[in-house]
Design brief:
Blueprint (H helix, E strand, L loop, with lengths): L17 H5 L18 H10 L14 H14 L12 H23 L3 H31 L18 E3 L5 E7 L5 E8 L6 E6 L4 E6 L2 E3 H7 L4 H16 L5 E5 L1 H8 L5 E5 L3 E2 L5 E2 L2 E5 L1 H9 L7 H21 L13 H10 L3 E5 L2 E3 L5 E3 L1 H11 L12 E7 L8 H9 L2 E8 L9 E4 L5 H11 L5 E4 L9 E5 L1 H4 L6
Length: 498
């Protein structure tokens, strides 16, 4: 290799202010150039400068201000002459001018880059809305993944009696009613579920029921609600989400209620008769004595939200249950198609009609108040109540329940209800049911697609009572579920078969 020819240093000609030239300021005529073909070093330097695009003055720059300021600072340092003075002034004058340009550009940058106050406020509000939407969007994404049939073959047979037949299981419909008082404070929480096409469950949830994962100052459901006030809508969504986590079921719909909306719902019914268990004084001064009383549509909301001095919500729930019974009985007895406002296929209208058409189980969340006023759930009783109320639950958040594909490996047909209840009671969510890949299986097998699910697979075997069952890692197993359970005679025979 040949040594590279060293590049001679190029210095600007005394008397030429390169900083002024770079800013587009007119210069005095330059000195005569060399007569040789290559040009003098000064000409070479001038040609290099001419190749640099002219920069706009700082007064008219906007988005390019920071870049221009940086360029000016660099160019100024490059042209400081060793003890020379010309049009550009002395070394100190050049540096001082450069500082003024940089500082001017910095001030322009600060003012140009600072958004208006209303833009900052809108950005903050949008950020809060997105944060509040995270739980809802996360759960909806989870449900789409678990229940979706896109990109996979749900069944390998169209014959329900053939091996390989599978079908998606629809989860039990759920709803949380969040009733607010006239001042926006939380009055009560009610959990609804539809067990079938007729009937369901009405469960009353105390405001002081614990948050499943408490934080400082947020130990109970009512505290979560209060934390989001005065934004009542966000408070309602947040507390309903926490109800789902506490019960370990997904919540399909959240319905806000207040005195006005309750009056609108009851308007077609008119008035309802209830057996009032204790004296109640409504906010307008009306006194309702013990015994049979008639409530107008406008009085139902204040009556249901009333909480007397020294009362806990268990007394309130007795009154609420009697309102619900009278209301649903009135709906069931009416032939008026408009007896319930709203859609027949969804929302509160659908729930009210379905509940009125069948048997309804009314109960408070199992548990009791402790001396400090916190409502402590009875975990065993609560789990049993949820299995009854929500036979096929979704998880409230991803990972809260083990998603299961439940197959009959003995013969065609759905597994017995007792087995389904065991899976749900063990925090399982059944997404797919059907027939195994073959029939006549003796031992139950649990298949999982990722190694981290082995513990859940062995736990499920124990829950089902499959003492001689097996677990198997199969990376090719469906990845939209956590476990595939293929039931054998060891489990089905003990539960009475099909």
């Amino acid at each position: 290799m040949t040594a590279e020819t060293p590049v001679p240093p190029v210095r600007p000609r005394p008397g030429v202010d390169v900083r002024r030239r770079s800013l587009g300021i007119e210069q005095e005529p330059d000195a005569p150039t060399s007569v040789d073909g290559e040009g003098s070093p000064d000409d070479v330097f001038r040609a290099q400068l001419d190749a640099i695009p002219d920069l706009e003055p700082a007064a008219v720059r906007s988005n390019s201000a920071p870049r221009a300021a940086e360029t000016v600072a660099i160019d100024t340092s490059d042209v400081l002459l060793e003890g020379s003075e010309g049009e550009g002034g002395s070394r100190s004058e050049v540096a001082s001018a450069d500082d003024r340009v940089v500082h001017s550009d910095a001030r322009a940058t600060r003012h140009a880059g600072r958004p208006a106050w209303w833009r900052r406020a809108c950005f903050a509000l949008c950020t809060l809305a997105l944060v509040a939407a995270i739980p809802v969007l996360g759960r909806e994404g989870y449900r789409l993944v678990v229940r979706s049939t896109a990109g996979r073959e749900v069944t390998r047979s169209n014959d329900p009696s053939a091996p390989g037949y599978e079908e998606i299981v629809d989860s039990t419909p759920t709803m949380v009613l969040v009733q607010s008082n006239a001042d926006g404070s939380l009055a009560s929480l009610t959990f609804l579920s539809l067990n079938s096409a007729k009937g369901g469950t009405v469960m009353f949830i105390p405001n002081m029921a614990p948050k499943k994962h408490p934080a400082y100052g947020l130990g109970a459901l009512g505290m979560v609600y209060d934390a989001f006030l005065p934004r009542v809508d966000r408070a309602q969504d947040a507390v309903a989400h926490e109800v789902g986590i506490l019960l370990n079921v997904g919540i399909d719909e959240v319905v806000p209620l207040d005195d006005r909306s309750l009056a609108q719902l009851l308007q077609p019914v008119g008035s309802i008769a209830v057996d009032n268990p204790n004296p109640v004084t409504l906010p307008d001064g009306t006194v309702l004595p013990v015994g049979n009383v008639t409530l107008t549509a406008a009085q139902v909301g204040p009556y249901m939200g009333h909480l007397g001095e020294g009362e806990d919500q268990l007394s309130q729930f007795v009154r609420q249950e009697r309102v619900w019974r009278s209301w649903l009985n009135a709906i069931a007895a009416s032939n008026d198609p408009g007896i319930v406002p709203g859609s027949r296929a969804q929302g509160i209208g659908h729930f009210l009609r379905t509940l009125a058409a069948g048997t309804v189980n009314y109960l408070p969340l199992p548990g009791a108040y402790d001396p400090g006023g916190l409502y402590v759930p009875d975990q065993t009783a609560m789990r049993a109540a949820i299995v009854d109320a929500v036979p096929v639950p979704d998880a409230p958040i991803p990972g809260a329940r083990v998603v299961v594909r439940l197959l009959n490996g003995v013969e065609a047909g759905s597994p017995p209800e007792a087995i389904i209840r065991k899976v749900v009671a063990a925090d399982g969510a059944i997404a797919v049911m059907g027939n195994g890949p073959s029939f006549g299986r003796d031992r139950t097998e649990v298949v999982y697609a990722v190694a981290s699910a082995e513990k859940a697979a062995r736990t499920m075997l124990g829950v089902l009572g499959a003492k001689d069952g097996t677990v198997r890692l199969d990376p090719s197993a469906p990845d939209n579920v956590d476990l595939t359970v293929i039931l054998g005679r060891d489990v089905l025979d003990s539960e009475g078969g099909n």
